[in-house]
Structure to design on (244 residues):
């Protein structure tokens, strides 16, 4: 059910952190995977490590806020495999300032990457997925997208991703493109390593631990594959019971 042979995937923010693990798992399942990120060196190194291991993986520089860069990424897919089946909108940034300390530009930056970047990905990738006979889009939101937090821009962008997921799912269902969101809790990566919030969050988590990037990637694989064929417009919380 999770054999992705013959399929092509784009993973944004795929050069490190959770995205890199998602890239590896999708490639292991047989997909050709385009790593898209602003981190060139990390992206090139990951693509070369996975290619050496026998997987079909390439790197494409992509800033998710640039429409031109998205078009270039789709051109790269067209000349590589000629089809697109899976898009993981994983790229994300955080700014922990509260409203009174945050400038409008800082707010816009977070919304631009986390929400508008995913909107652009869906808008530009969906037509190629439809041409390929359908596909699966997975938006990486957060369990922050269910309540208020002291990082208002990040929290708002993750709520926005849940709304985008549901709306896009309705719009593209008849075209055979499914759209779902994953809402992880604490996963220790470069996004939050060293943060003073880690220990309190673990203490508040019923399972008393943080999650592993691989546990999120397994859910990405499920939502990308045939086993989830009748699921669209849903958000899946994966946070050790934090939101329960
Ligand atoms: P990370 O910082 O390790 O990875 C984020 C990736 O996104 C990096 O490779 C970065 O270069 C890339 N990126 C940033 N801006 C970009 C842009 N404009 N264009 C393209 N790529 C860009 O963090 P992570 O924890 O792996 O985060 C992955 C996703 O998971 C994010 O959307 C994050 O919000 C979400 N998330 C993380 C946690 C957590 O606890 N780590 C929890 C819930 C949700």
């Amino acid at each position: 059910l999770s054999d992705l042979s013959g399929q092509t995937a784009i993973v944004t923010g795929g050069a490190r952190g959770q995205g890199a693990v998602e890239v590896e798992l999708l490639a292991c399942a047989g997909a050709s995977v385009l790593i898209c990120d602003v981190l060139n060196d990390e992206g090139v190194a990951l693509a070369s490590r996975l290619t050496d291991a026998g997987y079909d993986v390439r790197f494409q520089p992509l800033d998710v806020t640039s429409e031109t860069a998205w078009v270039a990424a789709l051109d790269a897919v067209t000349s590589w495999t000629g089809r697109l089946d899976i898009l993981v909108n994983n790229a994300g940034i955080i700014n922990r300032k509260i409203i009174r300390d945050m400038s409008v530009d800082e707010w816009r930056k977070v919304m631009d990457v986390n929400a508008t970047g995913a909107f652009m990905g869906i808008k530009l990738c969906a037509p190629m997925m439809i041409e390929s006979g359908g596909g699966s889009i997975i938006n990486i939101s957060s369990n922050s997208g269910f309540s208020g937090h002291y990082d208002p821009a990040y929290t708002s962008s993750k709520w926005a991703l849940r709304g985008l997921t549901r709306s896009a799912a309705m719009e593209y269902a008849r075209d055979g493109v499914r759209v779902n969101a994953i809402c992880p809790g604490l996963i220790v990566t470069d996004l939050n390593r060293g943060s003073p919030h880690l220990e309190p969050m673990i203490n508040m988590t019923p399972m008393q631990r943080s999650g592993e990037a691989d546990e999120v990637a397994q859910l990405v694989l499920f939502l990308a594959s045939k086993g989830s064929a009748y699921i669209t417009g849903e958000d899946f919380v994966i946070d050790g019971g934090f939101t329960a």
